[in-house]
Amino acid sequence: MAPVGGALWRQLCAHQVYGANTNVGKTVVSTVLCNGALRHPSARKVGFLKPVSTGPLDEADYRHIERFSPGTLQKGLYQFDEPVSPHIAAQSKTIPKDDEILTGVHTTLTKWADDGIKFALVETAGGVHSPGPNGNSQADLYRPLRLPVVLVGDSRLGGISSSISAFESLLIRGYDVHTVLLFEDDYYKNHEYLRTYFEKRGIPLLSLPQPPEKPPVEDADALARDEEALAAYYESVSKKSDIQGLLDDLSTKNTQRVDRLSSMAERAHNVIWYPFTQHQGMTAKDISVIDSAYDDYFQTYKPDSAQASNAGAGVLKPTFDGSASWWTQGLGHGNPELSLTAAYAAGRYGHVMFAGTVHEPALSLAESLIKAHENPRLGKVFYSDNGSTGMEVAVKMGLRASCARYGWDGSEEQISILGLKGSYHGDTIGVMDCSEPSTYNKKVEWYRGRGYWFDFPQIKMSQGMWHVEVPEELKEALGPNLEFPTLDSIFNLEERVNSDAAKRYRSYIQSTIEDLVAKEGKKFGALIMEPIILGAGGMLFADPLFQYTLTQVTRSNPQLFSPKAPSPSTTSWSGLPVIFDEVFTGLYRLGRRTAASFLGLHPDITVNAKLLTGGLLPLCTTMASNEIFDAFSSPEKSDALLHGHSYTAHAIGCTVAQKSLQTMMDMEQTGQWNPYQADWTSASSPAAHTKPEDAIWSSWSHGLVRDLSFAHSVEGLFAIGTVLSITLRDESGKGGSLRSFPLPTRRNYLRHFNSSLGYTSTAAQGLQKRLAVTGKPYGVHSRVLGNVIYLMASVTSKPESLREIEGLLREALL
Amino acid sequence: MAPVGGALWRQLCAHQVYGANTNVGKTVVSTVLCNGALRHPSARKVGFLKPVSTGPLDEADYRHIERFSPGTLQKGLYQFDEPVSPHIAAQSKTIPKDDEILTGVHTTLTKWADDGIKFALVETAGGVHSPGPNGNSQADLYRPLRLPVVLVGDSRLGGISSSISAFESLLIRGYDVHTVLLFEDDYYKNHEYLRTYFEKRGIPLLSLPQPPEKPPVEDADALARDEEALAAYYESVSKKSDIQGLLDDLSTKNTQRVDRLSSMAERAHNVIWYPFTQHQGMTAKDISVIDSAYDDYFQTYKPDSAQASNAGAGVLKPTFDGSASWWTQGLGHGNPELSLTAAYAAGRYGHVMFAGTVHEPALSLAESLIKAHENPRLGKVFYSDNGSTGMEVAVKMGLRASCARYGWDGSEEQISILGLKGSYHGDTIGVMDCSEPSTYNKKVEWYRGRGYWFDFPQIKMSQGMWHVEVPEELKEALGPNLEFPTLDSIFNLEERVNSDAAKRYRSYIQSTIEDLVAKEGKKFGALIMEPIILGAGGMLFADPLFQYTLTQVTRSNPQLFSPKAPSPSTTSWSGLPVIFDEVFTGLYRLGRRTAASFLGLHPDITVNAKLLTGGLLPLCTTMASNEIFDAFSSPEKSDALLHGHSYTAHAIGCTVAQKSLQTMMDMEQTGQWNPYQADWTSASSPAAHTKPEDAIWSSWSHGLVRDLSFAHSVEGLFAIGTVLSITLRDESGKGGSLRSFPLPTRRNYLRHFNSSLGYTSTAAQGLQKRLAVTGKPYGVHSRVLGNVIYLMASVTSKPESLREIEGLLREALL
Fold this sequence. Notes:
2 copies of one chain form a homodimer.
Chain A: E1 13-19, H1 26-38, E2 46-54, H2 55-68, E3 73-80, H3 86-89, H4 98-114, E4 119-127, H5 138-141, E5 149-152, H6 159-172, E6 177-183, H7 190-200, E7 205-208, H8 220-238, H9 241-271, E8 288-294, E9 297-301, E10 316-321, H10 324-327, H11 336-348, E11 357-359, H12 360-373, E12 378-384, H13 387-406, E13 416-420, H14 429-432, E14 451-454, E15 458-462, E16 465-469, H15 475-478, E17 482-484, H16 487-490, H17 493-496, H18 500-519, E18 524-529, E19 533-534, E20 540-541, H19 544-556, E21 578-581, H20 596-599, E22 605-608, E23 620-625, H21 626-630, H22 651-669, H23 674-683, H24 702-708, E24 714-720, E25 723-728, H25 763-772, E26 779-781, E27 783-785, E28 788-792, H26 799-813
Parallel strand pairs in A: 1-4, 1-5, 2-3, 2-4, 5-6, 6-7, 10-26, 13-14, 13-18, 18-21, 21-22
Antiparallel strand pairs in A: 8-9, 9-10, 12-23, 15-16, 16-17, 19-20, 22-23, 24-25, 25-28, 27-28
Helix pairs in contact in A: 1-2, 1-8, 6-7, 11-22, 12-22, 18-19
Keywords (chains A, B): Aminotransferase, Transferase
Subcellular location (chains A, B): Mitochondrion
InterPro entries (chains A, B): Aminotrans_3, Aminotrans_3_PPA_site, DTB_synth_BioD, P-loop_NTPase, PyrdxlP-dep_Trfase, PyrdxlP-dep_Trfase_major
């Protein structure tokens, strides 16, 4: 099913009518507004849409509009016979899917806009949380359209409360309430209290006289009198100046919203300093304006909608968030459960300082994470705000532990990091220094790189086979490229560890370290790796055997690093503290709770961020073994770990993270990803010594990966978990990964540039553009890394949604 | 008014009964539960409290319980005669303040717990948002007690919606809903839908048979029959096993909550690695367990409540958040407007990646901040996650600008920072290196300090007078200590700039820089200062004349820094880019929108965090001039500013920040701080060349500061804005500020240690303990910095609340 666009048109002022409760007078209010619009000096064409109606009750509503607002164009989409709540009526009928209802509403409004209708109302059924046909509440069902809201308040006893609660339920879902209307009741005076309440929040409230009371239905004369009275009521109310003023206001708000969207790129270009962006040559046109987001999609402003003579052109276009918003998204944008969870924590705590205190979310999350990691080494959790700060903490931990054990004075000598080429651990200066230097680093005033970074073999599929590609200059040491039938067989370390390749890896790693330490006198303080995929370096898929071997050599040969080293240990840290940077790869990004589990390794320190909060807000955890923790234990307070941020372990972040982790673990437990797993398992050879639950899988289909691997323009690709990464051949026909190009200022900065660097392939950029502007009413927002284009799903992405995107890829590449 | 404690007792299981709407049957449900509890095998004593009741309607409720649950102890606190909503009834009567109502409820429940009552219900009036006597809604009014909730759902048409919305309104305010009850309606079947809904969220729902219908009131016989029918209804329902099961469940939840609180310190001690904390010697007892927070108060677990033979001992104690949660709090803990704002942003966007895109909150906040700063230099806003990362960005900006202008190659030469001693800019390694080294830094493996840090004169009050204290070793250069009658006169820079002191400052600063550059060959890349107060360094109140002069010398003498420097300029950066770290001092922390305004200076780069989000969650802005921005402009993408975090400009943070900024600016505009200002203005001499709106003020009373300045144990103190800082004499009788002690590892780490270092005074610690455990049912959670103890208010703190805390200080010190 194609995604639906946000419902916004320049010429058509459309609103959704929500009720604070059932029977608060939505239809009367709608009739007043439609009548008012018909009488408006601008002689508007008016539409009234009731997407889902149930039985005689709603039929009456329908007739009501027909009778009392005869000029209004009316439409219904789905009709249930029984006069009950749609979710009950629906039990006995073919149920339209929520997506179909949304598409129906969007299509209708588009046609109306095209037909010159200027004012439209879309009426909901019942109150804001009354269930729709599939059981989702009105507010959840219609959220992807995010129509601005006309809220009909409740004038009865108790109506203050239900009106405010309904308003809050709408707010939590990111709706903009443009006005509140309700009837005047001189006894309860809800409208007075609510007027103050809503005006304080910038929302005008209009109170209407009570409509004439309904007579008993049996009496025909009375009915006629009722009709007359009602007609007189509408006649008098609809032309009142405050109704006309309100309609002007609604129309102005619609125009202002569109104007604001159309001005935002220019204004942003004026005041925003973007991360990792060269602003020279950048124009306002290069900035995508995001109105809102839902599930996997942004609602993006279409600049061409401004001038379009075609009034039906919607202002917003659904755009697949192909970078998962810099790899953060897990549970979808605008997830109401996460919003509520965040709000609960804010309401219960706000923020509570976190030194010498504890609160439930910080504690529960720490305990849950330790349990979830199934790494017997991890005993302590340190909180910070993002992956970069969390890695700074990890580095401080690692250096202290090794300096303490080996008796080095870190303030006198340079203690270095052992890592991989193309690594990236964040943008603060301390961890920037833990990634390798480059030919361009003289441009950067603050870089003081310290370390040694191994080059390594990489995995990708091409021509239908999986390959381990060894860098040219390492072939002598590490052996030739290897070919495997399945990804599972590459991860069969139990078998591969006895291979020739493994022997060569071991010997190469060991002799390199020996040389660095013995000949160059280097002192290493920690081994740092992004397990499996080095993301920012260009989606480098490391041969797991190499990462495994590097860790094992480090741990089995502690004397490599210092003569003072105790004998190797398999339970305590040995050789060097091993730090896994799972900021990107952890917490189900690759389909598993930890990336370490692919390697069967237990790091001494692990850092998580990005998916930790399901994609909502910044939080980071650095987990460490009790042994590392003990390295800071001393009678001197000044020996403590010198790190902390004001919002350390902020309650909102911890609460949302706990909820996200639990949700993702529940999804794993209840087999939510079974369809994806089945797709990959069936494609795999049955053998490969892999337990079915350990099989590698991706939410991108195996068929897509195989088919694209034969495409002329594709040099190689892979998919694992939610990540799909495609390396394109560059125009010169010279394939080769990003690694074969000269390094830019810092390799990792490629992550952030939405373009290649001139000397890299422009093929990825070309594909990026084709995916952004398709022949369809939706597109893909993606990021490229040199000649690599990648797409990333959420863990909640639905197969049908991803297959839609895969279709675009196939069209572009096959 | 003394603050009220959270309502929690070990022996008493107390709940608050909220209604999804008016007339949903709260009283019937309460009667069922009270009856059930009376019949419970444990033969409970039961209490029913209706704090505020209105007229005959509620009298009927009262009689209802009396009649149908005769063993239940009943109590009302406030009674209004008219049968209308309390907020209307209250218009014609003396209105109890919300605080009085809360205290009344707490006192009653305490007494009941003391009397051995095991089960109590506190009934609200109307729905969750029905207004209380002062216009605040039920849910807002009772929030400080945070009683767990029994929610009575609505079984009528529309009741699904109103029940869920009511539930959401409670969640947003941090309430725990323990159960939902509602009547069975076989037609609408709300209970079925809602049971699924709530059980998914771990909340049991119990449906009750409908009570017998009420007969018309006029008929005495019918009334009697009604009574009988009702009695039979209660008889049959109350003894049902599911009611008894529910009561057991409620009781278990109460016990579990207390048990959890009592176990949390131990568990935290086991798994949490605290920031800036030496864990050796730390025990679980040193950890405060925070149940929740509201306004300026934590609700802290009282460990002694566990063993108390006194059943009335509450488990929670209100504790003033004296460090404003590490200086972050602005709009109070648990602020429902901020919760809603956060939820709205989460619902509308989740998180949206921020490179080449823009969304409304990020743009609006950027524009608002630029406007609010009234600094014509600032043109661009760069977002990051916390003060430390924002300062890293500022440093990268400053170094680039100066290297570009002066033709330095930052990768070859050390470019240094000019700053002040005792400065602190965050804990990431890059900005740690921008603060001065210390005698202990050999312990830190990663420190590579680069810069020169000026010592400077400090401000404090002692013996009723304001002093400028010049460091002993600088007296020769800077002149003697000075005395001023008012703080305003110290800030009268217009006058002071012509003083002898100013001349000496100028000449000292200029010659020092000359020596550093000419003789030592140092190259400086930026001037970095925390204007007015250097917080983490020990609440050092810098003489504004010194900071002003340092900036002016830097800007007026650019040739000091490089022969290539162009002539001085007053509009573009000159000499060095001037970076103000307003992370702590900005955004009304000192009573003004910017700390720079006290100095009348316009920095080239300004960093804000902490109060930016009103105290809710991490966000940071680094604002810079267009000129600094242009230093990164180049045809090379690799010349761009290399910085960015995944959650850069996250929508929740930006939306909350925009709301906070607007709220605080509105408070300023509408004179919310007038009482504080009046207190300080009246104490000031009327002259002092200060415009009234420029007068210095504090939310801590001038009288307190003056009185304490005579206290024997006080060496000096000051208050400005929301900050009160007291330097205590140490035990040896040797006064002197923190500055006179040897520097610890890094001076700034003192901020984080909740104790002195052995060689510093223990007086502050002693005072800290006295404030924590007072003779009152509430205490103060404070932080000390060596021999300095400080207290910090929110911008929303009420005078009567702060005077209460001042009373504790007076008791302890006078």
